[in-house]
Design goal:
Strand content: over 45%
CATH topology: Maltoporin, Chain A
Radius of gyration: 25 Å
Structural class: mainly beta
Number of domains: 1
CATH superfamily: TonB-dependent receptor, beta-barrel domain
Helix content: under 10%
Length: 667
């Protein structure tokens, strides 16, 4: 679709605003506050959560274009998307390596320096829970910046339902399509439910106001299965998830190429849940899971016209895990949860680097490594009603970890084998005060940690012309977050405001000398700021103003003592908009005109040199959704209406004025 056609589409959407404004607006409905599990480990309304919590509900997902999971998360305050061929998420300035990504409560693990991408088709998602800030007591390792827990869909509430989704992206001339069959049928004394989904996405090179980014294409393919059986207060479920991803990384430098031929996830989960098993036992759950990630990475660098360094890496990661949870009500005024987690994570890495032009013949370096991490942890969280309006939470997690380098071969020669182990105790505490039904005030103290990955401890890797050697003496990174928050939910508006302060230490950084380097615990960081999510109806106009903004500062302290606020984190970021629900000729839907942007940033290294920057920007966007009846819904977005050039820090240049269009039909 050409820009002229996008302009026409934007005009058509804009022209509908007066007509829909004059149409009858549906009566206000009571919104039930969504429930979160990852904030404290106990089911609690997000309104009463002691932690900074955002829940993206099924209804909100339905009213957005499911381009990717990251696009569904863009309006969470303090959260940013990084694009290096594959989208990743950072929270409060903490890189994606320090954010825990979970699918149905089970963590995806990653052993690269880039962080865990989100490997799931957005059309399979029921809801998304986001916790901002340190949260390792409940969620374990990697939860320094926060946690993203993706809950997948289960069977429909009738014997058979068929749903299809098709979408088009004009900026990449791409598409996403999926089909789902699901249902629930009687079986014996209980019910059997099922869901089967297949889907595919293919996007070409991104077009921007300044030209096309070559190469920058991405594609994925998904197959997922859910089978469940419930009888009385017992239920079992099996989930299988297959997700294949491939991408080309735009670098802007024809002499520096990165390709990700595949990053394929296979995930299998068997789970049991029992409710009200005893007067004191509300819920008992057990999950067993296995997941594998098959990853290929190619880096082609030509530092001079006569020299080339080609690095090829193939990794196979296998994870076995088990989680056991017991939710108890030991007294009328308290609830408790205890849990045990086990994880066995193994990485096999096969690497090859070929250097030509540095001598009379090409130099080939081969490496093979087999390493593993095994971890046990036990955690407990206790909730106590101190009065009718005041609730306290306190929790702790003990973690024991061991890592081993089982095989290491370089150019056919066996290398020394090393190991690492650690144990630590973390805590969390919170208070929530309900002075009225409309208000909740909270204070929260929580800790986070991330254990060094296998690549940082044991592997030798080459990228960008630099060879990095693992360091088995690394310590875990740790953090402590303190928050004060206020939430208000009234008939005409809502507010969720947070003041936060985070101190992190023992950051693992690369220490490079010339063309070689290693990893060391050297850096520290302090972050503080305010995050606000708010909505307010504007009189009788039928319009609702909404805001999701963050203002923060982040200070880095390097090993040499140099301190800087130029950390690559924008001081201001967020979304401001006006939304209106409408009803016209038996149809219902909504319109949302919003601005999304952030302030400019710089990043300084330990020498005080600016090594990265980005200018501030703001884009004007329009979203419309319509329920066309008989199970058919339409969602359209016109992004970057003014067709401005911009490039957020850590991302590719933004798309030109473009249209995202999705049609979903359910039968």
């Amino acid at each position: 679709m050409q820009p002229r056609h996008i302009s026409i589409a934007a005009g058509v959407l804009a022209a509908t605003v007066p007509a829909m404004a004059a149409a009858q607006v549906p009566e206000a409905t009571i919104r039930l506050d969504p429930i979160t599990l990852i904030a404290t480990g106990l089911p609690v309304e997000a309104f009463e959560s002691p932690a900074s919590t955002t829940i993206i509900t099924a209804e909100e997902i339905k009213r957005r274009t499911p381009v990717s999971v990251a696009t569904l998360l863009r309006d969470v305050p303090g959260l940013h998307i990084s694009e290096e061929g594959i989208e990743r998420v950072s929270i409060r300035g903490e890189t994606s390596r320090r954010v825990a990504i979970m699918i149905d409560g089970q963590k995806l693990t990653d052993h690269t320096n880039y962080g865990q991408p989100i490997l799931i088709d957005p059309t399979t998602i029921e809801r998304i829970e986001v916790v901002r800030g340190s949260s390792s007591v409940v969620s374990g390792s990697a939860a320094i910046g926060g946690v993203i827990n993706i809950i997948t869909r289960t069977g429909a509430d009738k014997p058979f339902a068929l749903s299809t989704t098709a979408g088009y992206f004009s900026a990449t001339e791409g598409y996403r399509a999926s089909a789902t069959a699901s249902g629930t049928v009687p079986m014996g004394a209980g019910e059997f439910d099922y869901r089967l989904t297949i889907g595919r996405m293919d996007q070409g090179d991104r077009r921007t106001p300044d030209g096309t980014l070559v190469p920058s294409g991405i594609e994925d393919e998904t197959r997922s299965l859910h089978l469940g059986y419930r009888q009385g207060n017992h239920s079992i479920a099996f989930k299988a998830h297959s997700y294949d991803l491939a991408a080309d990384v735009w670098t802007g430098d024809p002499n520096f190429l990165i390709s990700l031929p595949h990053r394929d996830l296979r995930k299998y989960t068997l789970s049991y849940e029992g409710t009200e098993l005893a007067p004191w036992l509300d819920r008992l759950s057990l999950s067993l899971y296995r997941q594998t990630v098959d990853r290929a990475f190619i880096n082609d660098l030509s530092p001079t016209p006569t020299m080339n360094i080609l690095s090829d890496s193939t990794d196979m990661q296998e994870t076995w895990g088990a989680t056991l949870r017991a939710e108890m009500r030991l007294t009328p005024a308290s609830r408790s949860v205890i849990g045990i987690d086990f994880e066995d994570d193994r990485l096999q890495a096969d690497k090859q680097t070929v250097t030509t032009g540095a001598g009379p013949v090409p130099i080939t370096r081969l490496g093979y490594d087999d390493a593993s991490i095994r971890s046990w942890s036990i955690f407990g969280q206790h909730e106590l009603d101190l009065s009718e309006t005041l609730t306290a939470n306190i929790g702790a997690r003990w973690h024991d970890i061991s890592a081993d380098h089982d095989v290491s071969v370089a150019n056919g020669v066996a290398q020394p084998l090393r190991s690492n182990s650690d144990s630590l105790l973390l805590g969390a505490a919170g208070l929530v005060w309900r002075p009225s039904e409309d208000w909740a005030l909270r204070a929260n103290l929580s800790q986070g940690y991330i254990y060094p990955n296998l690549g940082q401890m044991f592997l030798t890797t080459t990228g960008g012309g630099v060879t990095l050697t693992g360091n088995p003496e690394l310590d875990p990174e740790t953090s402590t977050t303190f928050e004060l928050g206020a939430r208000h939910q009234g008939e005409t508006g809502s507010l969720d405001a947070t003041l936060f302060y985070t101190k992190a230490k023992d950051y693992i950084a690369t220490v490079i000398t010339g063309t070689t380097g290693t990893y060391e615990n050297v850096d520290q960081a302090r972050s503080w700021g305010v995050e606000i999510q708010a909505e307010q109806d504007i009189g009788d106009t039928g319009l609702t103003a909404h805001a999701s903004v963050a203002a923060m500062r982040r200070e880095l302290r390097y090993a040499n003592g140099f301190e800087t606020f130029d950390s690559g984190t924008p001081e201001l970021s967020g979304t401001l908009g006006l939304r209106r629900d409408w009803s016209l000729a038996g149809l219902t839907g909504g319109l949302d005109l919003f601005v999304r942007g952030e302030s400019g940033v710089e990043f300084r290294n330990d020498a005080g040199t600016v090594v990265g920057d980005a200018g501030g920007y703001g884009t004007l966007n329009l979203r419309a959704d319509a329920d066309l009846g008989q199970g058919v819904t339409l969602v359209a977005e016109v992004m970057n209406l003014t067709d401005r050039s911009y490039q957020p820090y850590g991302q590719m240049p933004g798309s030109e004025r473009s249209l995202n269009l999705f049609l979903t039909a359910s039968f």
